[in-house]
């Protein structure tokens, strides 16, 4: 009996046959559903040459590439600013000063509860901001407030003994946060962080509502063209895999980073040498905590 089977009974012949029947039945249902969808698409003429002809034109290809570039640009700005804002707000929520903690809490709860589309429209219409800054600002405020809670939860998930051990070495609060709590908390929350960045990537599609020429906006221009017989389904079938591929790429990057951290022994524990070098007084003997 291996460790992987120690907590459950190994299926017998009848159970394996039943599971095989379940698998075959599920496969048949999925294939039938896909066949029915394909039949509907063929019946409605979604695969006619007229609807797919636009993608062969260089101007349409350049329009899609320009929209994709604008989407990635908005996402890059929003991702960096959201991470920075999340770190600032999380630091405020973890502060020992009541005013700072309450202020950060109010900001986090307000922007997290506010629909991101409402914030984008408010910034674009009321404040008369250009489409790209309005989109980035709305995404930053929403995703930054969510990431603040993610960071705070990650820091709080670190065992209390690690914090106490760091203080026993004479480390200051900033050093404890920098060398002990934040690295371990971010490592634990990395999948959640990447998941929120995926949300930010998909929410860039809201830019078409404020006339920002992103990927979905480019697809909408093609799909609403009467000269190409309104190729809505072909546009969806072209754009959707690209969005899915970008999200999968982010997930793969998170898995790769997590794997490197597990293989790198330097990421485990506290960097005591670096901490002691900072707690040592300039030109003087070690502090009492180091002795």
Task: Walk me through this protein's architecture.
Helices cover 73% and strands 0% of the residues. The longest helix is centred in the first third of the chain and has 36 residues, at 58-93. It is mainly alpha-helical. The chain has a single domain (50-279), classed as Orthogonal Bundle (MetI-like fold), CATH 1.10.3720.10.
Quickly describe the structure:
The chain is an all-alpha fold. 73% of the residues lie in helices and 0% in strands. The chain is flat, with a radius of gyration of 26 Å.
Largest sheet properties: none
* Element pattern in H and E: HHHHHHHHHHH
Q: Give the strand tally.
A: 0
Count of helical regions = 11
Please state the structural category: mainly alpha
- Overall shape: flat
**Unreliably modeled segments:** 265-291
The oligomeric status of these chains comes to single chain
CATH homologous superfamily label: MetI-like
The CATH topology is MetI-like fold
Strand content: under 5%
- State the end-to-end CA separation: 51 Å
Our count of domains comes out at 1
Arithmetic mean of pLDDT:
83
User: In the CATH hierarchy, what is the architecture at level 2?
Assistant: Orthogonal Bundle
As a percent range, the share of helical residues equals: over 70%
